[in-house]
Specification:
With 547 residues, this protein is an alpha/beta fold. The chain contains 18 helices and twelve strands. A hairpin with a 2-residue loop joins β6 and β7. α1 runs antiparallel to α2 and α1 packs parallel to α3.
């Protein structure tokens, strides 16, 4: 009876660790602590190791992670109900279905822990860290929704994730999971050797992070309270450029209505002009005005994803945007649908960003290549009438294929639209094609006042660190932000305000070690995993259990 009681208490504690790690490790309205996310792999290790059968190991990990995912992704009901128009009785089960499907990754990890983990052996923990790496990577490829990777929580404390400049965010987060497993094994067995391995790995990751941040000092960060007051200050460094982030704060359910389109255009043009007037009013002399004009000329006006709810190539409003660029002496990059007719007569609609140069002339475009299921298209096997409302007025988008950077003077902009910024390989493509700055436009108005914009923001910052590129982000309702090349948030604005925010960013031309190693890392990790599993194999074929 005492054994049964102790075993049940351990499983309960392990389940609570998994739930707390997923819910409270990631940004949420209640409380969050980034390192708490490591409680998730620790709890899964306890659940898997203590399970009497592989099936129960999987179920224990899956059930605990399902609750954690439901809590962390509770915001999914907002776009499904408010934007998609689904009743809450349908939206909530759909959100739960997504959560429990993603939680199967945790179930598989607990199952593999049951088979391979030796708590007293640090090499075994490292092997399972690499297992975590492949599970995260595989689910990102297969499910297309890598929203809760360990790195997405840890990046909020940038010193924990600096190794991502060489190893990538997924592997760096997985190594932190390895340290958590070593610590868990040491506590479980009482052996100091495993504790020493945990300390060495944690000190290596954290020490490297602190060293890199000290070697690359951060300029003063601008937060939401001061962002609306910032003004452009001319800088001699040619790699520094100004950016004007304009948030229309347009209601997602109104932007596609024909009667509101002129009002939407007016909102963005007026906000932009007011910001330009504020900037110019500070210049007192002709020399100041010339310096400011030259500085603004190498910068960018940035409007968010689908800021203009019409095809710029066929709209009467486009001339107004062209005139605005000429008036500002700055190029404009804005989101707007793009429509093209195929040879067979079918019309393809793209989620596009359009670039107008400082004279108002068309200077290129990019079409989103990684579309959001149900937000931008409905999979063919689920084309039911009640899901069609999620697409609003635009219908199903087509995926783009052009990935070359958009160029203006010294800027080679690698565009990412909305949640394209959560995929490492898309940012990798942009930099490989020559981008010296990453640009992310999004419409987080889908999410309302939930944890999702904050979770999305954190995931976006990982791409800056991995690629050694500054990342400029503009959204409809916030959070518009800028990350430096070390993944630090150096500028962020408030939410849910119609506003135009002045900020500055920097171009970078040197590629990171991770960029160079991108395609080799999975193969190297596979070889290391095979070697570690071989070294830690149990010749007798038995599996140690909690006694």
């Amino acid at each position: 009876m005492a054994f049964t009681t102790g075993f049940t208490q351990i499983r309960l504690l392990a389940s609570l660790l998994v739930i707390a790690g997923l819910w409270l490790g990631f940004p949420n309205p209640l409380f969050s602590c980034p390192l708490l996310v490591l409680a998730c792999p620790a709890g899964l290790a306890l659940l898997g190791h203590g399970a009497p059968t592989p099936k129960k190991a999987f179920l224990g990990g899956w059930l605990a992670a399902s609750i954690g995912h439901i809590l962390a992704l509770s915001w999914l009901t907002v776009p499904l109900s408010r934007v998609g128009g689904l009743p809450m009785t349908v939206a909530a089960p759909c959100a739960v279905l997504v959560a429990v499907a993603l939680a199967t990754q945790a179930g598989l990890f607990a199952l593999l822990v049951h088979r391979f983990w030796q708590p007293e052996n640090s090499a075994s923990a490292l092997a399972l860290a690499l297992v975590w790496y492949f599970l995260e990577y595989g689910y990102a490829l297969a499910a297309g929704f890598p929203w809760l990777p360990l790195s997405g929580a840890l990046i909020l404390w940038p010193w924990t994730m600096q190794a991502a400049d060489t190893l990538g965010a997924t592997l760096t987060g997985s190594l932190w999971a390895g340290a958590a497993l070593m610590l868990t094994g040491a506590l479980l067995t009482g052996r100091l050797r495993a504790l020493g391995g945990a300390l060495v790995l944690a000190l290596a990751l954290g020490g490297y992070g602190l060293w890199q941040l000290q070697a690359h000092p951060q300029t003063a960060a601008t937060g939401p309270d001061k962002a609306p007051l910032a003004l452009p200050r001319p800088v001699a460094d040619p790699s520094v450029f100004p950016v004007l982030l304009v948030e229309g704060n347009i209601d997602q359910n109104q932007k596609w209505v024909e009667a509101f389109r002129t009002r939407t255009v007016d909102t963005y043009i007026n906000l932009t002009r007011e910001a330009l007037h504020r900037a110019r009013s500070v210049a007192q002399t002709d020399g100041d005005r010339q310096a400011l004009a030259g500085y603004l000329g190498r910068g960018l006006i940035l409007w968010p994803e689908t800021a203009m709810p019409f095809d710029l190539a066929h709209s009467r409003h486009t001339r107004r945007l062209m005139a605005l660029c000429a008036e500002a002496g700055m190029p404009l990059l804005t989101g707007a649908p793009g429509m093209e007719r195929a040879l067979g007569g079918a019309t393809h609609v793209y989620n596009r960003v359009w670039l107008l140069d400082a004279y108002g002339s068309p200077a290129g475009s990019y079409d989103k290549e990684h579309l959001v299921p149900f937000g931008e298209y409905v999979p063919s096997f689920l084309r039911w009438d009640f899901l069609a409302s999620l697409l609003q007025e635009v219908g199903a988008y087509s995926a783009g294929t052009r990935t070359a950077p958009l160029r203006q003077r010294s800027l080679a902009m690698g565009p990412l639209i909305c949640y394209e910024a959560v995929f490492p390989w898309l940012a990798q493509e942009r930099v490989a094609k020559g981008a010296n700055v990453l640009i992310d436009v999004s419409n987080d108005g889908w999410f309302g006042d939930t944890a999702a914009p904050w979770q999305h923001l954190a995931l976006t910052g990982l791409r800056a660190l991995e690629q050694n590129r500054w990342l400029v982000r503009c959204t409809n309702t916030g959070i518009s932000a800028i990350f430096d090349a070390r993944g630090r948030l150096v500028f962020s604005g408030p939410q849910f305000q119609a506003q135009a925010l002045w900020a500055q960013a920097r171009t970078e031309n040197e590629t990171s070690p991770f960029h160079k190693l991108f395609y080799a890392l999975p193969a190297v990790c596979a070889l290391l995993l095979a070697g570690l599993l071989y070294l830690t194999r149990n010749p007798s074929g038995t599996i140690r259990r909690i006694q």
